[in-house]
Design brief:
Blueprint: E1 3-14, E2 20-36, E3 49-51, E4 59-61, E5 64-69, E6 78-83, E7 103-113, E8 119-128
Antiparallel strand pairs: 1-2, 1-6, 2-5, 3-4, 5-8, 6-7, 7-8
Length: 137
């Protein structure tokens, strides 16, 4: 596994007035191998787009990745800053200033087991977050 990704965990804070805000803080960096999630054996440009899904002229684009790592990733975590072996961020928000790394939610995680019953690695499915920010809400 020659790639790296940063794991962010949720942190809640509450003011004296009772307002709770949720933010994401850096937790760790993991070794990984990441590739786009293909449906039906091929990546089709139309597979990940939905137009007018019942809302007023809505548009939704899903971007999913498959990540293999030596550790389990919680569904409550976020993954970002996925880097190649040269340390450069691979998946970036190309339309944003300074092109920050994309942020992904964890949608599923399961162990891949070898024939002797030992965990070889963990496979995690990631989906791009619609609002690309880890700032408190």
């Amino acid at each position: 596994m020659n790639m790296k990704a940063d794991i962010f965990v949720q942190q809640n804070t509450q003011t004296k007035s009772g307002h709770i805000s949720r933010g994401w803080v850096y937790h760790s960096t993991v070794d990984c191998k990441v590739e786009p999630l293909k449906s039906g054996g091929a990546l089709n440009r139309a597979d990940n787009k939905t137009f007018d899904a019942g809302d007023k002229n809505s548009y939704l684009e899903r971007f999913q990745l498959k990540m293999k790592s030596p550790v389990a990733i919680s569904r409550r975590a976020r993954v970002g800053n996925i880097r190649g072996s040269d340390g450069a961020v691979i998946y970036v928000e190309i339309d944003k200033i300074n092109q920050p790394g994309m942020i992904f939610d964890v949608t599923a995680s399961h162990a891949e087991v070898d024939p002797l019953g030992r965990v070889s690695y963990w496979e995690t499915t990631l989906q791009r977050v619609l609002v690309q920010s880890n700032d408190p809400t």
